[in-house]
Amino acid sequence: MGDTVIPRRAPFLFLRAALAAGTMLAAASPTLPQTTQPNKTREQPAAPTETIEIGLSTETIAITSNFGGTNLTIFGALDNADPLIRRQGRYDIIVVLQGPERDLVVRKKERYLGVWVNAESQTFLGVPLSYSLASTRSLQDIADPKIFRQLSIGVDNFYLAPEAADKSDANIPEFGKELREIKMRQGLYSQRIGDVEFISPTLFRATLSLPTNVPVGRHRARALLFRSGTFVREANTSLQIVKAGLEYRIYEAAQNYSLLYGLFAVFLAVLTGWFGRLLFRKD
Amino acid sequence: MGIYLPIAELSVNMLVILGMGAAVGFLSGMFGVSGGFLITPLLIFYNIPPAVAVATGVNQVIASSVSGALAHFKRRTLDIKLGLLLVVGGLIGSLLGIYLFSLLRDLGQLDLIVSLLYVLLLGTVGTLMLIESWRALQRVRQGQPVNLKRPGQHNWIHRLPLKMRFRASKIYVSIIPVLGIGFFIGVLAAIMGVGGGFIMVPALIYLLRVPTNVVIGTSLFQVTFVTAFATVMQATTNHSVDIVLAMLLMVGGVIGAQYGTRVGQRLRGEQLRLLLALLVLAVALRLAFDLFVRPDNIFSIAIADG
């Protein structure tokens, strides 16, 4: 029943959001908000069903090679909220932006005859290359850690699938922990507590970090709503990060036209060597 | 002045790279070496990933050897037949080298093996050169005539089958050691990003008894073709040739080489070799040091899928 009400109210909400947030919301399909609303299971059917939506100002972000990192602001709306719970501050929102997934291998160096050598390794499948999280409060204040593990939310909680056949390998937790730590040091995994803020009773703003080395590809944004420690629903959207500029075109050429690229590299070298000789001919 | 290297995927100071190219170009002009064996370690010291340093180093070697090869070709001071056979060996060698390179990279051992090979090679070459030039200097000081050893006697190499006559070199020798030398240089070009002239020249003189007037030209001829082939192979299999980095190194190198040649003509041969030996040993020691020092983080991550 709730669902039939939302489409009527949602455009109004988006309009208000657009006014409040300038252009940030404009491109986020304001006419069809119901398509971005997954109809998730309701934890408490008796209570009014809150809904959550998020919007991005753009589908594509182009970064240049001198990109020094920035913040990405995602606006969202919380609808049908219980005023009492809202006043008590018992609604919590977590917004996650996760990068494209690849298989990653973690290697550990050991000393052999005095030399440091890559020894043991552990491969994890489909690991997000970046993971940026913002939340209203710290995760342990929002809900039970078990819930976060189930939802695969939080830098320390999302599941890393080991490639090894023996899933009980004692090394897996250690290597997984190191993977998360290296990614955090590189700025690719981050958690920002308090960076989801309510700017009105129904509107919220999440500020996520896009680090310098943000991977290109499709990034998935997830917003999760919690009421008094229980997960209510989730909204999803996605965004494409591409690199612009000559440097990236060179990179693409090296990947996609590698033979031509190699021949061109040889040609350039021959030309430079020959030209240098012509320029400084002394013999 | 920062510039972004698209393949190495990091920003570097353009002037540092140009200076690096110029310094190595200066040395290569002074000593008559192609300089790949200095470029690759220097790039590694400057935090360029070893895979990119090797592939870009080999690309840079083409520029510094092609003009020399052309000059020798014009003067007919190279043995084309011998050179072609060395190239054949070199192409096969670099095919194997590229295969080993990719394999080592997948195993996560590439950086280690590249460093170890450099320590081994530069350490040996540097030590031999140091001893040789020191002895030569001693002889000069004692007023003894410089011993110009004329390679004349036959050795075990001349008893191998499949002999072939090389007119320009005036030698009659089995093609097995010729292909073998070419092969070895090809492997080194692919794995280490060097031209390999500093191994080829002594090998041609002492093993095959090639006369000194055609040795340099023939070596440069082979190095040009093998490094060109290795560059294309690196580009197609490992995508690790950084054209921006190579261009900066080559421009610096071409300019540096001109000044190096002039300085080199004023210095005495033995002193020059002693200096080069010390430089080579310094690079080897610096690389060895990194292998033995505990890294900041013993864990590392890399992309595992294609």
Automatic annotation (TrEMBL), chain B:
Task: State whether keyword Oxidoreductase applies.
Answer: no
Mind telling me which Pfam families this protein's record contains? TauE
Q: What keywords are assigned to this protein?
A: Cell membrane, Membrane, Transmembrane, Transmembrane helix
Q: What is this protein called?
A: Probable membrane transporter protein
Q: Which PANTHER family match?
A: MEMBRANE TRANSPORTER PROTEIN MJ0441-RELATED, MEMBRANE TRANSPORTER PROTEIN YTNM-RELATED
Q: How does it sit in the membrane?
A: Multi-pass membrane protein
Transmembrane spans: 12-45, 82-101, 113-131, 171-194, 214-233, 240-260, 272-293
Major localization class: membrane
Q: Subcellular location, in the record's words?
A: Cell membrane; Membrane
| GO CC, alphabetical | plasma membrane
**Family in the record:** Belongs to the 4-toluene sulfonate uptake permease (TSUP) (TC 2.A.102) family.
In the UniProt record, does the keyword Membrane occur?
yes
